[in-house]
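Question (not urgent): is this output format expected?
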Amino acid sequence: MALQQIIEQAWENRDLLKENNTIEAVRAVIEELDKGRLRVAEPVGDDWKVNEWVKKAVLLYFPIQAMKTIEVGPFEFHDKIALKTNYAQLGVRVVPHAVARYGAYLAKGVIMMPSYVNIGAYVDEGTMVDTWATVGSCAQVGKHVHLSGGVGLGGVLEPVQAAPTIIEDGAFIGSRSILVEGCRIGREAVIGAGVTITGSSKIIDVTGSEPKEYRGYVPPRAVVIPGSYTKKFPAGEFQVPCALIIGQRKESTDLKTSLNDALRENAVAV
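Got this back:
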């Protein structure tokens, strides 16, 4: 509570960033994020709570940090935030050229292929961050998730009350999917290759006799593919992208199933 109070006061009065106790408080919050003892958002029952004051601390961290050169072997970076370290101690596998920033949490058993995890993100145990996948600022990724090649999880820092992009336990995210603006992917859902979901995207369940619509939320175990619907504009009717729920992941399906298997189970050609 003491940390939160200092952060809230500094948020309202940026002159406090010149004081040592404020600087120490901001850095203490980033250290807690780095170690996974604090989270930007956390599950509360079936919902999620956003810790706005933690987001504020992330935003306040940038102005108190000086630019510096970071040398890693033959590579050179010039930035305000250090790179994450001690991967062997953390039990995390990091393949060159994967990069995670200090202030991002990587749990034991995480595998990072050449990919990127930004400050404030939380990646839980056993998750695979595949080649050229990006985990944006404050994104929350659950246990045993597979982020396939080229997946983009958007960063959500502002507004501070906005929920980050959330991927719950056991989800499988197909190649080149784009999940941004605080959308939420439910537990063990399967997102097909090339699906784009924002916080306001239409996600239409077409498995019943009547379509059922969600906005920016994919229910648990849903199997989702790219789709479109017709929308009227002054210039005429045009097709607008959406996402389609075309089935449910079977209870018998192993959590490590491939995307192709999940789609075949729902009679989708792959």
